[in-house]
Design goal:
The structure is a single chain. With 314 residues, this protein is an alpha/beta fold. It has a single domain, classed as Ribonuclease Z/Hydroxyacylglutathione hydrolase-like (Metallo-beta-lactamase, Chain A), CATH 3.60.15.10. The protein is built from ten helices and 13 strands. The strands form two sheets. It has an eight-stranded mixed β-sheet with strand order 7-6-5-3-2-1-4-13. A five-stranded mixed β-sheet has the order 8-9-10-11-12. The chain is globular, with a radius of gyration of 18 Å. The termini are far apart.
Length: 314
């Protein structure tokens, strides 16, 4: 395996509170717990993974747009807006844009050549308007979901995704494509050197993808988006409450089965507060110094912080 991956880092574009059943399903239907839940989780990071490859800088996910807490018109109105408000609430400081988060670890956003989207929910596509110079990579199955009549109810806001000036590359994963990896019989090698391989991991959404990062002499990393919200929950097959239960369970078991091939596999969800520590332990000195992310449960500079649940029923 070539050492074409030079460094891997994680930054956060704010914090999000979700419902307990969102992270760990109790078996009840989504609409039921969404309408009846009263408690919120502790704040979770909105992680963006930054991979420095010899061919250029790659992002896995792009975080949450700060406009979601400053612009009252960001979210849809009516029933979709009400459901967004029930689903999550965000804290995003003035210095927690994607551009500024990258600058905090020494990168200019102009250096980003590719941005891979695990899926198209709002807290993964928020940096798109800052990336019109880059190639945006997603699965064709995920893109097809934008055309559903209930797309807004499924968490897909096309006007924040299909932006003018973006360059998209949509991937398909037919059986037998690419290198078979453990139980995955289809894959897409981003650079053809085996260092960064995309895997289809449906369940949370129909077209969710994960990224396997490999480097000689280092534990492999698997960035999984929202397949799970915590590494321990995934290991115990405790699936999230958002998505298709059968597909989520199958994907969870497939990822856990990868440990047979990679016993030291490091799982990196998008909203796991422990992911940064595991990444540092795995890559050591090759993890670029991160910006000073807020510890769970703390706030950014009060003068800069805007906190808002989508206020869309006005």
């Amino acid at each position: 395996m070539p050492n074409s991956v030079r460094a891997v880092s994680v930054v956060s574009t704010g914090m999000v509170d979700i419902r307990r059943q969102h992270a760990e399903s109790d078996g009840s239907p989504l609409l039921w717990w969404l309408l009846t839940a009263r408690d919120w989780s502790a704040p979770r990071p909105i992680n963006v993974y930054v991979i420095e490859h010899e061919h250029g800088l790659v992002l896995f996910d792009t975080g949450q747009d700060r406009a979601s807490v400053t612009d009252p018109a960001y979210f849809p109105r009516g029933i979709p807006g009400f459901l967004y408000r029930r689903l999550a609430r965000f804290e995003i400081g003035g210095r927690e844009t994607l551009t500024q988060a990258l600058a905090g670890i020494g990168y200019d956003i102009a250096e980003v050549h590719w941005a891979i989207l695990s899926h198209l929910h709002q807290d993964h596509i928020g940096g798109l308007r800052e990336l019109k110079h880059a190639e945006i990579i997603a699965s064709s199955a995920e893109w097809a979901s934008l055309n559903r009549p209930d797309a807004a109810l499924q968490g897909l806001m096309r006007r924040h995704i299909d932006l003018p000036g973006l360059s998209w590359r949509l991937l398909k994963f037919p059986p037998g494509q690419g290198e078979p990896i453990g139980p995955f019989d289809s894959s897409c090698d981003l650079f053809g050197d085996g260092s960064m391989v995309l895997l289809p991991t449906p369940g949370h959404t129909p077209g969710s993808v994960s990224l396997l990062v490999r480097r000689e002499g280092k534990p492999p990393l698997l960035m999984i988006g929202d397949v799970s919200y915590e590494e321990d929950l995934l290991r115990r097959e405790r699936i999230p409450g958002v998505g298709k239960r059968k597909a989520l369970l199958a994907t969870t078991r497939a990822i856990n089965a990868l440990r047979t091939a990679y016993p030291d596999l490091v799982i990196l969800p998008a909203h796991d507060a422990g992911a940064a520590g595991r990444l540092t332990a795995a890559f050591g000195a090759d993890v670029r110094a991160r910006n000073e992310s807020r510890p769970v449960g703390t706030s950014a500079d009060p003068a800069e912080l805007v906190t808002r649940t989508p206020d869309t029923d006005r």
